[in-house]
Amino acid sequence: MTRRSIYADGFSHKNPIPAASRISNMLYSGSIQGTDPATGDYGDTIERQCELMFDHVRRIVQAGGGSLADIIKMTVWMRDRSQRAALNAVWLRDFPDPQNRPARHTMQANLDGDKLIECDFIAVLTDKEATR
């Protein structure tokens, strides 16, 4: 099996790491924040950061050869877990079927700067490019 680095338009890390890494049909993301793809700035509100974060998740999983339907687990870190309603609004938009949602673990964290939320995900891809 060969590891392949995944990069997505509009998303990058400050350090020399890819947005995700893929081996066979497994895709693991790095840390994903709610940043504007054009400016790199964090969204002004928790709601905006959640929207931007999920937009990045979608682009990253697609760049890896999958879709939101392939995500099996998300881990989310929030500065203030009492603001989970903002997270849940985007979660329900992107995963509307209660019988077909990934697992999720949300934790409180001391996030740096203007970051209010961040996540990572694991996806099990079902496409045929697994050996690429």
Summarize the structure.
32% of the residues are buried. 22% of the residues lie in helices and 27% in strands. It is globular, with a radius of gyration of 14 Å.
SSE layout:
Elements: E1 4-6, E2 20-23, E3 26-29, E4 32-33, H1 46-63, E5 71-78, H2 84-94, E6 103-108, E7 117-124
Parallel strand pairs: 5-6
Antiparallel strand pairs: 1-2, 2-3, 3-7, 4-7, 5-7
Helix pairs in contact: 1-2
Task: Please explain how this structure is put together.
This protein is an alpha+beta fold. 22% of the residues lie in helices and 27% in strands. The protein has 2 helices and 7 strands; from the N terminus they run ββββαβαββ. Strands 1, 2, 3, 4, 5, 6 and 7 form a 7-stranded mixed β-sheet that branches. Helix 2 (84-94) links the parallel strand 5 and strand 6 (103-108). Helix 1 (46-63) packs parallel to helix 2. The longest helix is centred in the middle third of the chain and has 18 residues, at 46-63. The protein is globular, with a radius of gyration of 14 Å. The mean pLDDT is 94.
